[in-house]
Specification:
GO terms for molecular function: kinase activity; RNA binding. This protein is of the alpha+beta class and about 270 residues long. It has helices spanning about 20-40, 45-60, 90-105, 105-115, 130-140, 170-225, 230-245, 245-265, and strands spanning about 65-75, 80-85, 120, 145-150, 155-165. The radius of gyration is 27 Å and the shape is elongated.
């Protein structure tokens, strides 16, 4: 059994008496969830859309979850910062807002710090989060299961499941959740890598396109004035500053104007 952090002072909930058919059903749900997260990166979907699907697969794979959220963090120095999150239900969105924006405490934050699953069976009287727990209990939500998403040595986020019943997550649910969290972490991590690589590629492409247009504008100015490339570039900068316009836009306008004049001369 994976190690996990239980609610202090609260007895471990008894394992549900499951028939062989029910155990097989749980295994099938876990397999379906794992198959789902294994396939979503291949579709090259946006990260937010992928996160949404992982959260939905978590509800399918982990017994007892009535709503789930997936949180992704980014590090600024040594401090993790919430980057984005996705939820399967509005009540989870409200809970996450209380956790991240209002109180700064809760099972997700604890699980990412401890690097192990965190369980609560009665949020309203959980001493670990006195402010968060009271807020959530008043919403009628009493159980939580948070699973850190770990790739290598890095915690990249967490899956957070909630239920209205007390003691909804016994060890069986934690075990299945831990099995789901590993592949889910890899899927989210790879999707973020792909998204960042694509963003960097787009930035480089735009930079190269901008450089090509600026070089063309410099050539046009040199043909008109007989000056050096440095003098032409300085003139472009002055025009950009005077018009409060981007250098790329100034250069593009100059090239387009030169093309129009060349076409007019050709027709004439």
């Amino acid at each position: 059994m994976h190690d996990y952090e239980r609610q202090p002072g609260r007895a471990v909930p008894p394992e549900p008496e499951l028939s062989r058919a029910e155990l097989d059903e749980h295994e099938a749900d876990l397999y379906a969830g794992l198959s789902g997260v294994a396939g979503i990166v291949a579709g090259a979907k946006p990260v937010n859309e992928l996160m949404q699907e992982v959260a939905e697969f978590a509800v399918q794979a982990i017994p007892g979850m009535q709503g789930a959220g997936l949180t992704v963090v980014d590090k600024v120095g040594d401090t993790p910062r919430i980057e984005s999150w996705a939820v399967t239900a509005d009540f989870v969105r409200q809970i996450d807002s209380v956790q991240y924006e209002t109180t700064g405490e809760g099972p997700c934050i604890t699980s990412m710090r401890s690097r192990c699953p965190v369980v609560s069976g009665s949020l309203g009287c959980d001493p670990r989060w006195p402010h968060f727990g009271g807020h959530v209990a008043r919403m009628g939500v009493h159980s939580a299961l948070s699973l850190p998403l770990i790739v290598g040595d890095d915690v990249i986020g967490a899956i957070n499941g909630y239920a209205f019943d007390r003691d909804a997550f016994a060890e069986h649910a934690v075990q299945l959740g831990a099995q789901f969290a590993g592949p889910a972490a890899v899927s989210v991590y790879n999707a973020r890598l792909l998204a960042r690589a694509q963003k960097r590629t787009d930035q480089l492409r735009l930079a190269l396109e901008s450089r090509a247009v600026i070089d063309q504008a410099i050539g046009i100015l040199r043909s008109r004035t007989g000056g050096t490339a440095e003098e032409a570039f300085d003139r472009l900068i002055r025009i950009s500053q005077t018009e409060n316009a981007k250098l790329r836009d100034v250069a593009d306008r100059m090239v387009e104007e030169a093309v129009r004049r060349a076409r007019a001369r050709t027709r004439g």
